[in-house]
């Protein structure tokens, strides 16, 4: 694969302030038009953030052409748009042991400190330091993910995805108004559940809500849906049933292609 250098001055806002907008997506079948890739939804989210920040739009046909090229080599793409409209398309492989994690689940750590809340949570910007720090802290505790909280201790999202819970005949996911990322996968799963007539509650995840959850999971566009079987909460551990039949009701199945 041809590699090209793209000069970026050390004084550029992308370096100095994390002034970029990005999205990460999984390309199914090396096809941007595949319905599970949801290319346009990812681009729309970037467009909305750029409009909010009053930044210029990139050359979208060129972005798509670059993404299509990189997708022939990598299943996961990251589209990054700089504050001046320049674009960067990079690729990487799927995470290690993804299929195993999707089947068996992972452990997560509750951060319990609002310090780890993301900056500008409604937008996917280059300033992801708080999430990265939370993930590093979780890994030091022996967990694979971190659950971020607000000042009241309500669960918001994980360091890399949106939260889902099943319990008492209801699906639960924190509301966007709580200050979480409007994940593309989250939107897909919500549409499926609502179309299937499932009961979905988008209310703040207070301790009372969390206590009703029997199956806990998180989602993003790369990993699909991964159950959380163990939560490290202070000096205690909470255990959840990584029920694959329940999680299958969320929507399209995880793909191991």
Alpha plus pi helix count: 8
Low-confidence stretches: none
What would you give as the CATH superfamily of the largest domain? D-amino Acid Aminotransferase, subunit A, domain 2
Q: What is the number of independent domains?
A: 2
Number of strands: 12
**Gap between N and C termini, in Å?**
22 Å
Shape: globular
Binned strand content? 25-35%
Radius of gyration: 18 Å
- CATH top level of the largest domain is Alpha Beta
What percentage of residues falls in helices of 4 or more residues? Answer: 25-40%
User: What is the fold-level CATH name, i.e. the topology of the largest domain?
Assistant: D-amino Acid Aminotransferase, Chain A, domain 2
What is the second-level CATH architecture of the largest domain?
Alpha-Beta Barrel
User: What string, H for helix and E for strand, traces the elements in order?
Assistant: HEHHEEHEHEEEEHEHEEEH
Could you say which structural class the secondary elements and strand pairing correspond to?
Answer: alpha+beta
């Amino acid at each position: 694969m041809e590699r090209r250098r793209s000069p970026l001055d050390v004084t550029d806002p992308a370096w100095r302030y994390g002034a970029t907008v990005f999205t990460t997506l999984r390309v199914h079948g090396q096809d941007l038009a595949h319905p599970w890739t949801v290319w346009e939804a990812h681009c729309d989210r970037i467009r909305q953030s750029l409009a909010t920040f009053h930044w210029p739009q990139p050359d979208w046909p060129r972005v798509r052409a670059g993404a299509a090229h990189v997708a022939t080599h990598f299943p996961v793409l990251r589209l990054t748009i700089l504050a001046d409209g320049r674009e960067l398309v990079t690729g990487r492989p799927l995470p290690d042991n993804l299929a195993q994690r999707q089947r068996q689940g992972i452990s997560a750590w509750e951060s319990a400190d609002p310090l780890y809340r993301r900056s500008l949570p409604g937008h996917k910007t280059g300033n992801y330091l708080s999430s990265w720090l939370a993930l590093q802290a979780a890994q030091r505790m022996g967990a694979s993910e971190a659950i971020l909280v607000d000042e009241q201790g309500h669960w918001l999202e994980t360091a890399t995805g949106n939260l889902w819970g099943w319990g008492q005949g209801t699906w639960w996911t924190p509301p966007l108004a709580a200050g979480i990322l409007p994940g593309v996968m989250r939107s897909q799963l919500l549409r499926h559940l609502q179309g299937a007539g499932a009961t979905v509650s988008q209310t703040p995840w207070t301790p009372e809500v969390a206590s009703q959850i029997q199956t806990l999971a998180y989602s993003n566009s790369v990993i699909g849906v991964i159950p959380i079987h163990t939560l490290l909460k202070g000096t205690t551990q909470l255990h959840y049933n990584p029920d694959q039949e329940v999680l299958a009701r969320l929507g399209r199945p995880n793909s191991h292609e």
